[in-house]
Design brief:
Strand content: 15-25%
Number of strands: 5
Number of helices: 5
Oligomer: single chain
Structural class: alpha+beta
Order of helices and strands: EEEEEHHHHH
Helix content: 25-40%
Strand order of the largest sheet: 4-3-2-1-5
Length: 128
Amino acid sequence: AKPIAVTVTLNNDKDFPGYVTKADDANLYISQFEDGQAARGYSLATIKSISWREPDDWMAAMDLWNRRDYNGAIAAFGKAMTEYEGLSRSKHPLLTDNIGAQAVFYYMECLRRTGKFNEMMEPSIRVQ
């Protein structure tokens, strides 16, 4: 997965920056390196909040969405859906609206708005 820059606030109100590589229902995997190497699992129970920095590719995809260029956004969100897949499956409340989960939503919504209904099945099955 492509790392995303974050600042994490722990339950003791201490902040630290890092790069999230993936998450599951119990842990958030954070590296101190931009390339995501040597990511360490941090229990989500010890994390108070997560401040996500929006990556450039994500902002470009959202720009296509905001301009209503849904065909262009299909490719951008499809790529984001794959690159940030490691975040899309966690059901933990701290990860409800992370970029991985949002990429799936926007990808499917772009398909719907362009009438590509058959193509919606694969991502729908992947995230259920």
